[in-house]
Amino acid sequence: MQLLSTIPTLGKKVVRAFVPTFLYATGRLKVAPIPAARQPLRRSPRRFRRFLATAIVAGLSSVANDLRAQITLGFDPPDLPATTSFSLVPNGYGGLNWNNVYYINRNYLAGSGYDHGTVSPPDAAFNGFGTAATVVDPVAAQYFNFTSADLTAAWIDGLHILVEGYNTDVSPAPIRSATVTVNSAGPTLFDFSTLGGGFNGINKLTFTTFLNPGDPSPNPAGTEFAMDDFKFTTTTRGGTPEPGSLLLSALGIAGLGLGAWRQRVKSRRAAA
C-alpha cells in the first residue's frame, strides 16, 4: 500500500489554516484589543480560548482519522490464488465484496484486451459474461472513495462503461455517475476522484457495459472489459446526492411544511 499522494498538500493546508488559530488559543499569539464600542458580545477570553483549543483538536483528529492509506488492488497472487485461466474474485478481497467480478491470467487469451489491459501482471479483473459487475463495502457505516482504475475493452473498440456510485444509507439511487469509453489496444487510466463529481463516500459501485446503435460489433461480440490497479481509500464519511437531487428534496420538504402550515391556519380560523 502507498500513502495518498494528496496527504502532503493537504497537510500543508491544515497547518496553514490551524497554526495561527492554535497559537492564539494557547496565548502565544497576541492581537490588538478590539475597542469596547465594537464588541457586540463580551465573553471570558480564557473560556473562549479553551473552547477554541478543544474545537481545533477535535477538527484535527477528525481530519487525521479520515486520511487513510490508499489501497491498490491488482488482482494478483499472493493476495489471490494463482490461476492459468480465470476465477471469481472472492468476497473479502481488499475488504470489499465482489459480485460477478472475475480475474483472468493475461496469457489465457493472449493478444486480447485482457492481455493488453493487464497493468500489473499476471492478472486483471473483468465483468463476467459482459454483464453488470458490483463492488460493495460490507462494513456498516463505512464507505470508500473510488480513486482510479485502468480500464480496457476486452474485444470491442469504443465500448462504453457506465460507472455508478451509491450511498445506500441515504438513497437507493446512485449519487455519482460517469460514462467512459475504452478500447482493446491498451488501458486507459480514469481518475474517478474527479469524474462524475468524485466517487467519494460510496458503499456500492457498479460497472455496466453497453454499445450504442451504430457502434462496431466484431466477433466475438462480448461486452467484457478488463480492469486493473483498482485504487481506493476507506472513509467514515458518507457521500450525499448531487446538489440537484438535494434541491428537489428540499423543495419537497418545504412543500410539505407549507401544506401543514396552511392546514393549521385553516383549523384556527374554523375554531374562531
CATH structural architecture of the largest domain: Sandwich
What's the alpha carbon Rg, rounded to whole Å?
26 Å
List the domain count as a whole number: 2
Which secondary-structure class do the elements indicate? alpha+beta
Contiguous uncertain segments of 5+ residues? 1-12, 244-250
- The CATH class of the largest domain, by name, is Mainly Beta
State the helix count: 4
Shape: globular
Major β-sheet profile: 7 strands, antiparallel
At the fold tier of CATH, the topology name of the largest domain is Jelly Rolls
Percent of residues in beta strands: 25-35%
Compute the number of strand runs: 12
What separation lies between the terminal Cα atoms? 72 Å
CATH superfamily of the largest domain: Protein of unknown function DUF4465
Order of H and E elements: HHEEEEHEEEEEEEEH
Structural features, described:
The structure is a single chain. With 272 residues, the chain is α+β, with helices and mostly antiparallel strands. It has two domains: 60 residues; 165 residues, Protein of unknown function DUF4465 (Jelly Rolls, Sandwich), CATH 2.60.120.1350. 27% of the residues lie in helices and 26% in strands. It has four helices and twelve strands, in the order ααββββαββββββββα. The strands form two sheets. Strands 1, 2, 4, 5, 7, 10 and 12 form a seven-stranded antiparallel sheet that branches. It has a five-stranded antiparallel sheet with strand order 3-6-11-8-9, with no helix packed on it. Helix 1 packs antiparallel against helix 2. The longest helix is centred in the last third of the chain and has 29 residues. It starts with 6 loop residues before the first helix and ends with a helix.
